[in-house]
Amino acid sequence: MVTAIVLIKAATDRIPETAQAIADVEGVSEVYSCAGDVDLIAVVRVGDHEALADLVPGVIGKVAGVVDTDTHIAFRSYSSRDTEAAFAIGGEG
Q: Has residue 40 been placed in a domain?
């Protein structure tokens, strides 16, 4: 499984519609609107790098309102939720 964070610049007058269209794309697990240098951040989870290479420019990049994307591939998760889940395995019984 490949996880990527896609930073998206969007047309200002289309941010809500663009965010929803991206959220509806298969492989996109979450979309956040945000302040700062980008308008939207999408979390993408796909099976392999080929799928990511197809999804970002071929689907997300073509959504109406998307001006630019910048993709960052995640190597490892350090979230507390993941750590808690790992230690909870086999804890019930």
A: yes
